[in-house]
From TrEMBL:
Coiled coil: none
Source organism per UniProt: Nocardioides jishulii
Protein name: Heparan-alpha-glucosaminide N-acetyltransferase catalytic domain-containing protein
Domain of life from the UniProt record: Bacteria
Organism ancestry: Bacteria, Bacillati, Actinomycetota, Actinomycetes, Propionibacteriales
Keyword vocabulary terms for this entry: Membrane, Transmembrane, Transmembrane helix
Length: 366
């Protein structure tokens, strides 16, 4: 799926150019789309006209997983393998810790951060493979995903009945009924491959024919499966982990990501959608704040009342846009420029990679 293959030693980063800025902006825009889709999936009180808002249930976690793969692939190009591994380990640890803490908050949602943390480590390993290897890993993960869910049902039931919540939390990192790691890995591999296609290493935008093929192919798969579902020829249900559903959500996420990269080429559109991209740049901060808000809603503000309300959908969206805009106006230095929690993680990454770099550069003892 790509015109270039990965090598064991990634190309070092070059000074930022206009294409680099545009492509990073496109990735952040896709993250912003994932955030808004998440708000709809978590708190929309209705499915909307024609059930269109139900699409958020099929887009949110696959797009987050694809963006993990895309981010890891871009990171692999900037640093050597062990520095990249240290950075990935720190980011994974941060997501696992945040996911574990947020699961205790009491919000009526399933937290995706911990599964994405494990996915970060898996994508780091996969990103070192050539494209055909990445494709094989993704295909294998997609094929075994339905089996893994069926095979684990009895274990999940036993752990739940025994109230072994700690073991259940760790077990569900692999085979959660909502976020199976095999499905996440499938979409993460798709993110790696699509990034290699649409974000070339030389920093130039991908050719329009290549971009058109990716958008056209993903759109065709999406529409074909949607038509089969609507005519009753196949069943596609969110979080059911069937092969048609896996293909549907992967095509959906790939198409949205590719469109965001195309939008990044248009300067006028970038100016209009800049606040959404800024939201995407501080995804971790916004995610944590939204979980805190929803936990307060059901435990303090409106005890026992569902958080499904348009006031939450609209309010969280507006609040995220305002917060991201205000943070940008502060002009915080790196690594705090993206967001407060992003700054904490970024600082930890800097320390970890510096330690690895210094250790590998140290002379061998005689």
């Amino acid at each position: 799926m790509t015109s270039t293959t990965s090598t064991s030693r990634p190309v070092r980063a070059t000074p930022t150019t206009a294409p680099d800025v545009a492509r990073e902006w496109g990735v952040d825009l896709a993250r912003g789309v994932a955030i808004i889709s998440m708000f709809v999936a978590h708190t929309a009180p209705t499915a909307g006209p024609g059930g269109v808002l139900m699409l958020s249930e099929y887009l949110t976690f696959p797009l987050f997983a694809l963006l993990v793969g895309a981010g890891v692939e871009l990171g692999a190009r900037r640093t050597r393998v062990w520095e990249h591994g240290a950075a990935s380990l720190v980011r994974a640890a941060a997501l696992l810790l945040a996911g574990w803490l947020l699961a205790k908050a009491g919000a009526w949602i399933v937290i995706v951060l911990a599964p994405l943390g494990l996915l970060t480590l898996l994508c780091w390993a996969v990103s070192r493979l050539p494209s055909w290897g990445v494709a094989l890993v993704g295909l294998g993960a997609g094929l075994v995903a339905p089996w893994s869910i069926e095979a684990s049902r009895s274990t999940v039931s036993e752990l739940a009945l025994a109230q072994e919540t700690g073991r259940l939390w760790w077990f569900e990192l692999l085979v959660s009924a909502y976020y199976p790691q095999a499905v996440l890995l499938l979409v993460g591999c798709a993110g790696i491959l699509v990034t290699r296609l649409l974000v070339p290493r030389d920093g130039r935008p991908a050719s329009w024919p290549t971009t058109g093929v990716v958008i056209g192919a993903s759109g065709a798969v999406f529409l074909a499966l949607a038509a089969l579902h609507l005519t009753g020829r196949t069943e596609i249900v969110a979080y059911r982990t069937t092969w048609p559903e896996e293909l549907f959500v992967t095509a959906f996420a790939v198409g949205v990501f590719a469109v965001c990269l195309v939008v990044a080429r248009a300067r006028l559109v970038r100016q209009v959608l800049a606040p959404l991209a800024w939201v995407g740049a501080m995804t971790l901060t916004v995610y944590v704040l939204h979980v805190g808000w929803l936990a307060w809603w059901v435990r303090g503000l409106h005890p026992g009342v569902s958080d499904d309300a348009w006031s939450n959908v609209i309010g969280m969206s507006v609040a995220a846009l305002l917060l991201a805009t205000l943070w940008r106006l502060l002009r915080a230095p790196r690594p705090w420029s993206r967001g407060p929690l992003e700054g904490v993680v970024g600082l930890a990454v800097q320390l970890a990679t510096a330690g690895v770099r210094d250790r590998r550069a140290a002379p061998e003892p005689e």
